[in-house]
Amino acid sequence: MRMRAPLLIGRSEEIEELDAVLVDAQRGSGAAVFVSGEPGVGKTRLAAEVVGHALDADMVVLRGRCSTTGPPVPFRPVTEALLSLMRNGHGNLAERLGPYRPILGRLVPDLAVGGAAEGDGTLVVLAEAVLRLITLAGERRGCLLAIEDLHDADVETLAVIEYLAGNLRDQPVVVLATVRSEPSAAIELAGAITQRGEGRTLLLRRFGAQDVHEIVAGCLGTGPGQVSPEVSRRVFDDSAGNALIVEELLYSMRAADDLVRVQDRWRLVERPSPRVSPTLIQIAMRRAERLGPQGVRLLSVAALLGRSFPLSVVRQVLGIDYRDLMEHLQSAVAAQLLAPDERGPDWYAFQHPLTVEAMRTSLPPIERAELATGAADAVAAENPELTGEWCHIVAALRVLAGQHWEAALLYLEVGRRALADGAPGTAVAALDDAEGLLNADGGRHGADQQREILETLLFALADTGQFDRALEVAERIRRLGAGSDTQRQLDLHVRLAWAGQVAGRWAEGAAQVELARALLTPDAAEKQTVPIDAVDAYLTMSGPASDRVRRSEALGWLAVRGAERIDSPSTACQAWYALGFVIRERDLAESDLCFRRMLTLAVDNNLTSWHNYALTGLGGNAWLADADPAGLLRARTEALHSGGISLAHNASAVLGLDAVLRGEFDRAATEIDECLAEASRLKLVAVVRYALMAKVVLAAHRVDREAMRAAVAEFAASGGMQSREAPLASGLGLAFSALLQEDGDTARIRLGEIAEEWARQPSTFYLAGSHGLKVLLDVLDGRADADTHAAVAASTPGMMRWNRQFVLMAEAVSLGAQGRAPEAEEAFAEAYRLAEPFPTARFLGLRLLAEPAVRDGWGRPDEWLREAEEFFHRAGVIPIASACRAMLRQRGATVRQRRAGTERVPAELRKLGVTSREYEVFELLPSRLGNKALAGRLHISFRTVEKHVASLVMKIGQTDRAALVERATAMQAGRTQY
After folding, report:
1. 592, 594, 585: which is closest to 561 by C-alpha?
2. Residue 28: exposed, middle, or buried by beta-carbon count in 10 A (0-12, 13-18, 19+)?
3. CA 47 to CA 59: how far, in whole Å?
4. Dihedral of the CA atoms 539, 543, 547, 550 (nearest 10)?
5. Each residue of 866-882: pLDDT tens digit?
6. pLDDT range class, residue 339, cuts 50, 70, 90
7. 735, 751 in Cβ contact below 8 A?
8. Which helix (H) or strand (E) holds 468?
9. pLDDT at residue 330, rounded to an integer
10. Reported pTM
């Protein structure tokens, strides 16, 4: 008799749907599918059939399963799946993982590079690494990741599955997971993913009577006509259509000779026999009992260890020799209760997970406690360090043995290890178990142990962003007596302050700092004050106070000096990093010294993460000082090599802005879009906002109004208008774009608003305009006095290369107005040299300086105007190119004819006869300016604008000017097709 029917029965619709999913994945459109149903309904069998179809289609298949009765081990099914990928000859994919390889080293030792990955060990980054690996595995033929028993998954695995489900739409990957339909976090996740449209759930129904009849025939190796209806009826009645129970019932009936073959037809025997209970526990026990008392005892001990177990531990608990052990083991294998496990020759596993539950629950409490004690002692003797999952397994065994105190300490250790391994969800669960066991123990061991558990739990809650629960745990710690211990109280507030920092709740974090400071006495030791100063420096930098820069610097110096005296290199690095950023405004060289001191500390103490941060700080300074991106490129490379994903993306966002300022718009678009996609997927909020700001600046420098409106809306939706990046979006973006469109009034208004905001609340972003572009416009307008100009020119922000070009242009204008032509030309020459990396700004400067140069008689304004006109004509920036031509005509200079500009006119408008000159007017109509304003913007006569507008109304078929404006607006917004 077969334990399973050779053919899958009653699931044709599900198979058809899943086959379609596989085909879609091979075409590059993946999906997540959850096969749900009650235990034993056939989820695993259906998944196995799908795996077979995937293999037949030459797809890469990865398989992993969750622990069904043992402790939840972080990422276990994902690890199993990736290990199978490595075993099957796909190890070469690791070379293509880039920065994600060291992150996956946590799960797959083969992928580790130079030890465990440091830096961004978040679940999101790990999930992205898994996604990248399985996508690479399936890039040519598709990949199926099959996860069994998701209902028993740890919270970290569920988080990975959720992330994968949300990012499979454009990947050649199918995630197929089986999950019980009973209440669990997994089934809730499956429902949420299905509701969001990121996946689908297939709920498997129980089999009907006819399906059961076919299953029975298949298991018996015959056709449906050779099975007596009463056989399948009895099986159906007892199993209620559950496939697993059908199979188990048939095996039991056959073994008991209740089912016999008479004249090629299977029938029930005439004699009465005990009716087998339709519960799997009873079925499993009957099968186990046929192995004899020692066989039952073997299975019982094995069940206490979990679905998979090592024979060496079972043998030690049973106290029998190897020969007897193997005899009983072979009997269990023959009865199809056990099977060899892939973990090694010493390992075996139960074939059905519910058999494990049956064996465990069938043990009398006293015997269960005795066996659990023996199993825990045996594991501890064989593996004293309780490495890997054994610490959790032994903790569970101690619980079964009634040894609550020992179990609580083990769960505390499990929590500590999980926290260190970047699995705070598992840490929280283990620490909750530990505290519950201490409570169950009646508090006989006092409050110190419970406080230790809760203090560790506080760290885990901070890492998971559960600030409210962290507050509740902190209150419980106080009630345990921490209030009488000043140091514990200080530690408590500092931890809560960090939790506020992680959660982005600056005010509440700052409140914890104030509570901590209130506990300090006038003679408080530095080991008490330094951690507070360190966290306060960060919270102050992130807060809204107008004096946050000054106060952060003061706190940073206190933390640096204190950290060095108490020999805390990590805290010192934190403080130096804060100081490096604060001091940038005052002195870039001094800021460099801070970052270099931090770099030395990080190297000497093997602090990889802080090493990368120091390189980023130095690279940022070099970029600001001299527009040199080499340092940022190096910092990004180092961060990628060590797995510092968020820091690498931070550098990428700045490099994207650098490409915009350099006029390398295509490269900038690629850099920004890639950074934005990755940062959004990884939920790096600060990087996303900076990248969105750079996207605004890119559209502005391209003078793409439609793209700029969309980018500004996206930036605003991210909370950008209230962020520190807002002045950059306004100054580098909107004000700069206004100047390129010859709209100086709007530019001046924007820059004035930035200056007012800076006066109220200084920012750490210095390129927005107050220290450069605004200075030039103020000098051009005659509104900047010499002292103000000199003060900006002497400031550190004024010396940053992007700002310095404009400051020197302003100086040239001032000197020219004073009749000091040689000095003016010398200042201009230096400004022109500094502007070399920034072509758009360089040629904008030529256009702006031409007018005062003509008025005051210095420089070569005609040559500048021709250069600027040529540049902006090629760039398609018509208003400023037209302005340059108009100024040349006014001076009587020859002007190059630009009649070949019709290529800019959309083909549909060209068909209507719209000329390039008319299109220049048409482009500006959405700004809703009057004809006179349009004339001023394009540097043409009022009559010419009137003529062009009238011609456009007629050619495009509009009733009047207002309708033409609406049509132009609709076209730019993409709502109208011509």
Report:
1. 594
2. middle
3. 15
4. 30
5. 999 989 988 888 889 88
6. confident
7. yes
8. helix 467-479
9. 87
10. 0.58
